[in-house]
Amino acid sequence: MLKKERKEGEGSKPAVKKQIQFADQKQEFNKRPTKIGRRSLSRSISQSSTDSYSSAASYTDSSDDETSPRDKQQKNSKGNGDFCIKNIKQADFGRREIEIAEQEMPALMALRKRAQGEKPLAGAKVVGCTHITAQTAVLMETLSALGAQCRWAACNIYSTQNEVAAALAEGGFSVFAWKGESEDDFWWCIDRCVNLEGWQPNMILDDGGDLTHWIYKKYPNMFKKIKGIVEESVTGVHRLYQLSKAGKLCVPAMNVNDSVTKQKFDNLYCCRESILDGLKRTTDVMFGGKQVVVCGYGEVGKGCCAALKAMGSIVYVTEIDPICALQACMDGFRMVKLNEVIRQVDIVITCTGNKNVVVRESLDRMKNGCIVCNMGHSNTEIDVASLRTPELTWERVRSQVDHVIWPDGKRIVLLAEGRLLNLSCSTVPTFVLSITATTQALALIELYNAPEGRYKQDVYLLPKKMDEYVASLHLPTFDAHLTELTDEQAKYLGLNKNGPFKPNYYRY
Amino acid sequence: MLKKERKEGEGSKPAVKKQIQFADQKQEFNKRPTKIGRRSLSRSISQSSTDSYSSAASYTDSSDDETSPRDKQQKNSKGNGDFCIKNIKQADFGRREIEIAEQEMPALMALRKRAQGEKPLAGAKVVGCTHITAQTAVLMETLSALGAQCRWAACNIYSTQNEVAAALAEGGFSVFAWKGESEDDFWWCIDRCVNLEGWQPNMILDDGGDLTHWIYKKYPNMFKKIKGIVEESVTGVHRLYQLSKAGKLCVPAMNVNDSVTKQKFDNLYCCRESILDGLKRTTDVMFGGKQVVVCGYGEVGKGCCAALKAMGSIVYVTEIDPICALQACMDGFRMVKLNEVIRQVDIVITCTGNKNVVVRESLDRMKNGCIVCNMGHSNTEIDVASLRTPELTWERVRSQVDHVIWPDGKRIVLLAEGRLLNLSCSTVPTFVLSITATTQALALIELYNAPEGRYKQDVYLLPKKMDEYVASLHLPTFDAHLTELTDEQAKYLGLNKNGPFKPNYYRY
Amino acid sequence: MLKKERKEGEGSKPAVKKQIQFADQKQEFNKRPTKIGRRSLSRSISQSSTDSYSSAASYTDSSDDETSPRDKQQKNSKGNGDFCIKNIKQADFGRREIEIAEQEMPALMALRKRAQGEKPLAGAKVVGCTHITAQTAVLMETLSALGAQCRWAACNIYSTQNEVAAALAEGGFSVFAWKGESEDDFWWCIDRCVNLEGWQPNMILDDGGDLTHWIYKKYPNMFKKIKGIVEESVTGVHRLYQLSKAGKLCVPAMNVNDSVTKQKFDNLYCCRESILDGLKRTTDVMFGGKQVVVCGYGEVGKGCCAALKAMGSIVYVTEIDPICALQACMDGFRMVKLNEVIRQVDIVITCTGNKNVVVRESLDRMKNGCIVCNMGHSNTEIDVASLRTPELTWERVRSQVDHVIWPDGKRIVLLAEGRLLNLSCSTVPTFVLSITATTQALALIELYNAPEGRYKQDVYLLPKKMDEYVASLHLPTFDAHLTELTDEQAKYLGLNKNGPFKPNYYRY
Amino acid sequence: MLKKERKEGEGSKPAVKKQIQFADQKQEFNKRPTKIGRRSLSRSISQSSTDSYSSAASYTDSSDDETSPRDKQQKNSKGNGDFCIKNIKQADFGRREIEIAEQEMPALMALRKRAQGEKPLAGAKVVGCTHITAQTAVLMETLSALGAQCRWAACNIYSTQNEVAAALAEGGFSVFAWKGESEDDFWWCIDRCVNLEGWQPNMILDDGGDLTHWIYKKYPNMFKKIKGIVEESVTGVHRLYQLSKAGKLCVPAMNVNDSVTKQKFDNLYCCRESILDGLKRTTDVMFGGKQVVVCGYGEVGKGCCAALKAMGSIVYVTEIDPICALQACMDGFRMVKLNEVIRQVDIVITCTGNKNVVVRESLDRMKNGCIVCNMGHSNTEIDVASLRTPELTWERVRSQVDHVIWPDGKRIVLLAEGRLLNLSCSTVPTFVLSITATTQALALIELYNAPEGRYKQDVYLLPKKMDEYVASLHLPTFDAHLTELTDEQAKYLGLNKNGPFKPNYYRY
Q1: Which residues of C touch A (CB under 8 A)?
Q2: Within 13 Å, how many C-alpha atoms sit on residue C59's CB side?
């Protein structure tokens, strides 16, 4: 349905005149580039479902057994066989991974405790389609502790941690996922989640929109019982806005992608670390004294620039938006056009959300040894296709690292073939995933328990108060102590002592 | 009319459920604390009109002549006498100040050039009430170059640069202002601007709302010819929202206070520098190794924390809002309650927008020599009144610096008696004033030229495109080169090549 | 005697093959540039004695009385008249200044306490010649508490804080100093300190070498009773090395200028703050986004660069030494020749210790509004003389700020006429002065109590252990807790548990 | 011979009263802890020869062939068989590695060019014993280009890159090394380098002192023809000082370990990056908001602290030396005793050069999930042995990562079993190795060409001018442009225009 995936918080997130509205208002995106409309539900699989997610699966060895999981008879130790995974014997190993993850996801653990009595998801039947990792397992087991039944498939054919899937299956969850699914497997797994006699989901938790799409296509009647959709990805959110705009969205949907905490952590704070990590793991480059150009000064660009400056790099920035450009100036970066510095820089990083930011002409002018990578979105920012010409030689020197060699011997070091460096070559800290997972859980609770009429058939942002609640659940990790307003102060400020503390438009 | 003044961008700007709307939408603030309503137009003078603004007037010697300007016969060299200032002989000195300011306000100079042919303010009769400084003079002369007639009064009884007023009067402007006006003078000057036979203003440029208030009170019929109000201060903006809410706003008003560029510059970037400057000028304290607690992690707090951390201070932060608190954690600051660190810190800085953040109990527990100051808003954050008790001795050691001495000899160093440190003890860089002035000029042009019906009797934010335009006019100062979208890219992003580049809710 | 003053720790401190040796070794400087030798003891007054020291004297009003102090009959409240100062009535005001300074000089206060019983300076007769400030007063009263008698003159004709001198005189010290001495006064004061019937000094504490010089010239026989000289300034230290080299040094001398703590604080840490302070107080410039070139990457340059980078400036560095240049690269600064960036920078800062680093040709090429200042040494780095030509107009716009105007209207903003910005336009924090003063006191104690033969007629560095002791006395200011070695660890490292902890050549 | 290895630049490098002397002076270390003396030449293998060096060998697959290289008949394509390596077929792959390394070692390439005509090592017969990596290969081929003959062995049984060894052998070098040597292999290889009929070395390049030791033990007569030893490691340098002290050093030796550039790069700049890299690769920890204690504030500690602070961690520091402690304070770190913060920190990093800095008692008090690692020296800083008790469970969760589990379930994450994190879990950038290799090459040239009598049978530091030369050769990498002194300036400063620019004691 979508021609391109968009990364949240990219450098120059396009305006496209969206009007985000808040919990009690409907939300619409205007038209995306027109070609998108032409593609329809006859699509096969979303791009996000094939993006490699190397590190998340780093423990998993998929080479041990060549039989397809679909062809195996599967049972856990209690005789339950309503799942399909790689190898149930890995359950113990997976359990340990989950336990370790639990220690870094205190917010979900706190949710389990706080909601223990009330079971706010009692009766909820959640069907989910996300990356299947230890962190997801903590989320699923939290939902279960809150009263929900869960059935789950993977949103990506490569990213499943088989041992975690095994632990979940052993624990009684109906999981259908393994690392290295075929496209046919992918849809088969989703179908197995949804299509069960005597069981109908009433909540959807989706990441990328493929599950939602499948139900729309195959089981549209299911929506009668569904109370809402919680969607995490930019791609999936965009699809929902399209549906809404087309008048086809038949249940309320919660966009958890645009919550403040998720945005800041996924982009600014996470990229501040992952740019260094991704570059080091792939190239062992020394940052000190290096000249770097960062294309785009949105949250991702801001994070990259701050980190590299702190490590002693000399950073140049390109921008199309004068406001972001002015920020870059005030933060101490030279604002240039790419052409002005392309011959002298050692590293080129794209964070724009745009396409063809680095084109063949730029690549031709780079100096020998220049490293080129993309932190922005999808794989469109660097025109990698333009490098697939006969006179250039490609040499794979490490996993995710190619040398592209010009006839005169010049080598460009291209990382992850222009795909997202942070997904391909570094890891996402559990803490960031914890924020996302907690937001998802709260969104499910909100939608499931909302009184009739609070939400219509539209796309909503999480109420700010819940955003604040997610943040507050993560403060103990830092041993952070919040100050409480006195009655007098609350009155003075015209605020409720428990928040929300800021207007919706507050910029943070 | 207003019981308290609010500083823009303060640490914990209260939510008060405002819904900012954009250019084509009306904008309302919900009720402020209820007591505000009780005070009415019978007020005398806004607090902002008496805030001292020390540095802006640093060149001015007001002691030379004791005769009130109102009692003097005044004429400039061309025989024009339609003004009232301190001393026309200072005109040359003032002209030089203006010329220097021009060099740092390239955006206004660029506006003069670009609009030279078209005269977008031809026919405009602007009555203004702002600080009268060299920077204001550059603005006024720009408005004049764009075709406007201007009459001007001071919005503050202390802040007028007499020599600049003289240069303006000599240049033919009708200026009514001098340093050290009485309250009666203040209103007399405003009245002289407005009340002129055969001349009626059609545009208002206000800073604090006193001018607007005066016209409402004395000459309500004038509003029939007035096309709009441009208001810069938080206080004035708040008054406008009050009027709008009460259905009494009878012309469109433009809130230039909440534009992105102004906000970021007035708060984050400006405070990052002025906290250091203000502390050094008053106390000569060495920052390295000092323990500091910053109350509030809004834009102002973020700026203060970043600067002090960079100078080697150890910074603790207090917050009420869990989202800001989480940001502080990720930025490397210990999040504490004030009580936890009050005994050990060397410096206490308030940036909350709240009241009684530092109370007598905290002051009693501070260690000897602790410096206490306010960067947040007004003078409410530190409970200075609680220090006016018999057992404490006050000792003025420098301008703006008091030692408050406890019976046991402990001294607290209180700066600016709890008023805003950055206004009282440091200067606002011309560059920041340039951004504000440019935004004001553009707002006047927009309101004056807007087609019938674009703006109703309500309060508006500047359209984002104009915000971007203000930013773009300031980029040449940094020799910053913006990248332009290709047609293909613009299409891909669904953007107009000339902007706006971001949705209204974008956080920057 | 000296043609130029040299600032400690300057950017490119010349090697001149000095061989610093440590406490039990003699120390020699090789020849300085040859012309120095030509000037002899027939000199009048050292340059350092006329350097203005604006801020240190900021409280002092010298305009109240035109009678020369030498012509006045002076007595303190106890009838003692062995002093010569401006006005004894200012004693109370001065006492308060001293008390405030005491609170920021805890190391000296600790010395007073620790040495209370033993009186390690009992019998010492110290004659001193330093800046007379509140901080010096704390030192003098400490020496007195340790048992010494003190007589004191000013080392600079402008820097005396009259009220502090009054407080000292009132307290019984024989002080001969006032702000605004003539050259004749200067030497008269020094003579009055030394030349007293029935009293002969046995220790010298000097800053600049003028006192030492005077005794050499007028009372050479006094050296028979003198146990040693403690000298603080680069200039004075250089003179001592000259004397030593010439075989004319007849007592041991302690070079306190080159101790680690003093060096790091005077240069790196102090300049990191004073560059910002000096620029703000004089020009109110906004640092964010400014392009700055710093000439010299020694300790001073490192401090300036770090501060400006942190404030969002874009900093370029010039260097002659490839090692310092490599450090600048790794710290994230572009290493350029001045010519490459001179047209584009907003601020030029010299920190080289060299001469003619910024010459007329460079000044001609600077852009309008460029700020030029010197943080390095003396007034030789910027060729200010080259600007004294008829076609250029000088305009004094503030104290310490000149606009030099080219025929085409271009203005260069020259600070402090090329003299040291940090001395002229900012203040030295008391904490830095505390380190120096403590080092001086310890040096006096060491020299006064050293067993026969430990020190010969040569120049010595303070033993490292004393340097460490000075540091340890300042740690409580930061509530810093030092770890102690266990016996086992000390043995493992081959160290004494009480230090010294590092070899002499350790770089810190 | 040595009981412990010492890392250069460690936090609290012990004083041990060394007196470093410069090129024309002899240099001695005082006695190390006495037990060292007891071990004699009867030792087998130095510790450094078994330290794992994981990353350097990351490309090498050692599993392909189980036959010992010693048992194989080996010949390169030209029929030469004077080498012993793993597999000559890997030569092409190794050549590419070398070519890539050449691009990052421009200084050696420049040396090749500059010295092309003169061949300063013509006649030199160099026997070397170092890590055999691509970077070493560039050094060896440079020495060869300068005229030297080379025979080489590995200084570490694990670190050899087999494919590089193959490329060297194919290129005609007599290399004796493979990854995974036994101890017997180790000495056999060294012997094969040295013991060749008709060939005697006249220069030694050693890293760790094993080669030197072997010749001392087996072929003492060889020293008659040997002109000098160049030693790189702390361990090897210490051995040389021991020999010198014992009067047994029979040729001049050059200590390249203590050159400024090597020290700053190996410690400050390299650790600033490798602490982040090492922690990320092993634990994927997010740095933002983490509380970290760094033990030791020497160069290594300074680098770690700067990096973590920049990434948003809250950093505490422990120190024994008050001067370093004061620096930490001024740089913005709380100076604590370990016990004060041990319960609250998330990460503990040792950089002291000491032993038992983190003992069992501290480990018992750490919170769950605390990460513990060593950046300092050897494996003595953390008392790992104390964790080998029955009640604690060790769980290897990844390569180099152990969970040590307390009976109550608390887990400590121990990295690299307390060995050096930066060697075990991150890589050393080629640029750093380039500086070392260039210094080694210059030291060989200096010793080989020094006129009779310049160097005696002692240990020397590289002349400062050569240190500066090494730096200057690396500046082009950064496109850095050095300023040259004018004749006038050189005269003013008393410097030679070509350096050296600083006195030997300059601290940088």
Answers
A1: 288-289, 309, 311-314, 329-334
A2: 20
